[in-house]
């Protein structure tokens, strides 16, 4: 997501950064480029106008023109303004002091409500240790109830459903009662989709809201529909009001216009971002981190959080010890690889690494099959070979290639890559930050 915007902004700001001093003309030229980049990213034109005029004002202010290192100041200001554009502070769900907290999901047909309902359930279970129930209030679309039963159960939530014969308002009220009785922390209410912003269904949503008095109403919006998504959100904001947005299908949206416009247009922040069909492809939306990602500064915070969740403290200590003694072997590598793969698809992780975001990334596809191959190769080695890869000579290579169903070239490449990786890890161990970009190119 945001790929081409990121590339253009980074190019413009790269130019700006290289100049010794900045004149007013330099700033104006940069603002023009930024304006174009945002328009090309399908950001609402009114939003673009306001954004750039405000940005220009700040950049022309005393902070920049004629100052030392003015380029860096401009980058900093652009980062701050992008953060502000997306809502400033991260939007929070409001949890009720008296459970269950009720979350009502609304949105157009196919925007991803049911999927987001399950994802949010999983998220709340994992991050807040909450017991979650989901209520099936879409009684119109065939199979909508079955769908929620399936994904809700996968997410570890209790699914409350009464088939498709009852009024959704009654189902919602019944589900709330049941959630209370069963002591659930959170009840998430999935509703039926609207093809357009349709009066009748909108009225139903208002009735469901009156029946369950949600603490949070989340509007689910499909990022791939660009400015349409923003218009829909504007209509919803008038008709039912909502507290935050779940922006879905960001994986299929290279431009990012909806994500960048929706807060400015509706006054409501994006709270969650969905980046794929899998339950775990769902995260809190942090405007500051997103701005940094767009500007190529990488989203180190999210990466660290993801990693922390996966690595147990003890494992980390053990790893550090091995690195220090230079005992890091292919078995450890395999364990690491498995841990990293649990964090999600690698391409999405790479975008969070500073220096890899933006255009470099587009040329680099991580082939998940390659990872399967690496695992197979390591598993075909003897324990001794895994510990000391330098033992792997020609005949061993042939044996390993046969055993793993790969070729000697594959085995060679892995051994070489592993050698390079050990080198890097030793550098990091000594407190030096390696040049990731150069390494990835070298390793290919
Ligand atoms: N690529 C991608 N697909 C998604 C994402 N979120 C949902 N989908 C897919 O979008 C389709 C529609 O999702 P649903 O959750 O059924 O949408 P809905 O809003 O509940 O649809 P209705 O109940 O018909 O109104 C499904 O095929 C989902 O797998 C996402 O973040 N990325
Ligand atoms: Mg649905």
Provide the helix percentage. Answer: 55-70%
Count of alpha and pi helical runs: 21
Any idea what the CATH architecture of the largest domain is? Answer: 3-Layer(aba) Sandwich
The biggest beta sheet reads: 8 strands, mixed
Oligomer: single chain
The structure class reads alpha/beta
Q: What is the residue-mean pLDDT, rounded to a whole number? A: 83
What's the CATH topology name of the largest domain? Rossmann fold
Give me the strand/helix succession.
Answer: HHHHEHEHEHEHEHEHEEHHHHHHHHHHH
CATH superfamily of the largest domain: P-loop containing nucleotide triphosphate hydrolases
Principal-axis shape equals flat
Bin the strand percentage.
5-15%
Low-pLDDT windows of residues: 355-364
For the biggest β-sheet, the strand order reads 3-2-4-1-5-6-7-8
Describe the SSE topology.
Elements: H1 3-18, H2 24-40, H3 45-60, H4 70-85, E1 101-107, H5 113-128, E2 132-137, H6 144-154, E3 158-160, H7 168-181, E4 186-191, H8 199-212, E5 216-222, H9 227-239, E6 244-248, H10 257-266, E7 270-274, E8 282-284, H11 287-294, H12 300-310, H13 313-324, H14 330-342, H15 346-350, H16 359-362, H17 368-379, H18 383-387, H19 394-404, H20 408-429, H21 436-443
Helix pairs in contact: 1-2, 1-4, 2-3, 3-4, 4-11, 5-6, 7-8, 9-10, 14-17, 17-19, 19-20
The structure holds guanosine-5'-triphosphate and magnesium ion.
Task: Explain how this protein is built.
The protein is α/β, with parallel strands linked by helices and 444 residues long. It has three domains: 3-85, Up-down Bundle (Four Helix Bundle (Hemerythrin (Met), subunit A)), CATH 1.20.120.140; 101-294, 3-Layer(aba) Sandwich (Rossmann fold); 301-443, Signal recognition particle, SRP54 subunit, M-domain (434 Repressor (Amino-terminal Domain), Orthogonal Bundle), CATH 1.10.260.30. It has 21 helices and eight strands. The chain has helices spanning 3-18, 24-40, 45-60, 70-85, 113-128, 144-154, 168-181, 199-212, 227-239, 257-266, 287-294, 300-310, 313-324, 330-342, 346-350, 359-362, 368-379, 383-387, 394-404, 408-429, 436-443, and strands at residues 101-107, 132-137, 158-160, 186-191, 216-222, 244-248, 270-274, 282-284. The chain has an eight-stranded mixed beta sheet with strand order 3-2-4-1-5-6-7-8, sandwiched between helices. Strand 2, helix 6 (144-154) and strand 3 form a beta-alpha-beta unit. The protein starts with a helix and ends with a helix. Bound molecules: guanosine-5'-triphosphate and magnesium ion. The site of guanosine-5'-triphosphate has 20 residues, from helix 5.
């Amino acid at each position: 997501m945001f790929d081409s915007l990121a590339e253009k902004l980074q190019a413009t700001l790269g130019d700006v950064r290289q100049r010794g001093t900045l004149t007013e003309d330099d700033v104006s030229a940069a603002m023009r480029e930024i304006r174009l980049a945002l328009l090309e990213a399908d950001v609402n034109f009114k939003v673009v106008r306001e954004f750039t005029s405000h940005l220009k004002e700040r950049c022309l202010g005393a902070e920049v023109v004629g100052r030392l290192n003015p380029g860096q100041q401009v980058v900093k200001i652009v980062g701050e303004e992008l953060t502000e554009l997306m809502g400033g502070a991260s939007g929070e769900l409001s949890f009720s002091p008296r459970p269950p907290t009720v979350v009502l999901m609304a949105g157009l047909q196919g925007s991803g409500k049911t999927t987001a309902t399950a994802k949010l359930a999983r998220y709340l279970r994992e991050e807040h240790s909450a017991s979650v129930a989901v209520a099936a209030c879409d009684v119109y679309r065939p199979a909508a109830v079955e769908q929620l039963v399936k994904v809700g159960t996968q997410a570890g939530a209790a699914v409350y459903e009464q088939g498709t014969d009852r009024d959704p308002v009654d189902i919602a009220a019944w589900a709330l009662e049941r959630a209370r009785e069963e002591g659930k922390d959170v009840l998430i209410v999935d509703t039926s989709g609207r093809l357009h912003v349709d009066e009748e269904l909108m009225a139903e949503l208002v009735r469901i809201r009156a029946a369950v008095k949600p603490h949070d109403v989340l509007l689910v919006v499909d990022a791939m529909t660009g400015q349409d998504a923003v218009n829909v959100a504007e209509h919803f904001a008038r008709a039912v009001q909502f507290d935050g947005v779940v922006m879905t299908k960001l994986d299929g949206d290279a431009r990012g216009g909806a994500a960048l416009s929706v807060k400015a247009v509706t006054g409501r922040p994006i709270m969650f971002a969905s980046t794929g069909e899998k339950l775990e492809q769902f995260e809190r939306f942090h405007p500051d981190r997103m701005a940094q990602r767009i500007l190529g500064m990488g989203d180190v915070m999210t990466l660290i959080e993801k990693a922390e969740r996966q690595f147990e403290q003890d494992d980390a200590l053990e790893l550090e010890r091995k690195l220090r003694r230079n005992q890091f072997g292919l078995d450890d590598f395999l364990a690491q690889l498995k841990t990293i793969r649990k964090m999600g698809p690698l391409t999405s992780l790479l975008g969070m690494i500073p220096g890899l975001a933006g255009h470099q990334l587009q040329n680099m596809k991580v082939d998940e099959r390659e990872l399967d191959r690496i695992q197979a190769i390591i598993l075909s080695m003897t324990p001794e070979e895994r510990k000391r890869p330098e033992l792997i000579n020609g005949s061993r290579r042939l044996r390993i290639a046969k055993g793993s169903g790969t070729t000697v070239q594959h085995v060679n490449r892995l051994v070489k890559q592993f050698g390079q990786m050990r080198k890097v890890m030793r550098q990091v161990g000594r407190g030096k930050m390696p040049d990731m970009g150069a390494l990835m190119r070298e390793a290919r």
